[in-house]
Structure formats: C-alpha cells, structure tokens
Amino acid sequence: MEWVFKIAGILSSTCGVVLMLLWFLLISITWPDGQRLSAGDSSIIGMPGFGILLILAGLYLACSKPKPTG
Asked: Which residues cross the membrane (predicted)?
C-alpha cells in the first residue's frame, strides 16, 4: 500500500512543476497583440502558490511512511 503514496506524491509534484513552468511561460511570452501578462495578473496570480503547495504535498506523500493500523 505504500506504493500508492509514492505514486500520488510523484504525480502531485509533477503537476506542481508543470504548473510553475506554465506560469513562467505565460509571463514570458508576448501575445500577438503586443501585450504580456504580468506576474500579478488576476488570471494567473494564484498559480505559483498553488504549484508550490502541490510540490510540497507531493514530497510529503512520497516521503511519508503510512502508520501501521491495528
């Protein structure tokens, strides 16, 4: 059963990293109309924080040992 936590942790951390990379991509590209998103834009302001939370939760899941039941 321990492998379920490891897989969930790896998937969560991977999603967090992808979210962070997507955020960096969104603030670095210039759109066809010549505008760029700022890091504080309301549509993407929560992405870095949520990405970090996913990474930390994934690391916790992957590294924690489940308590024995019984």
From this structure: 7-31, 43-63
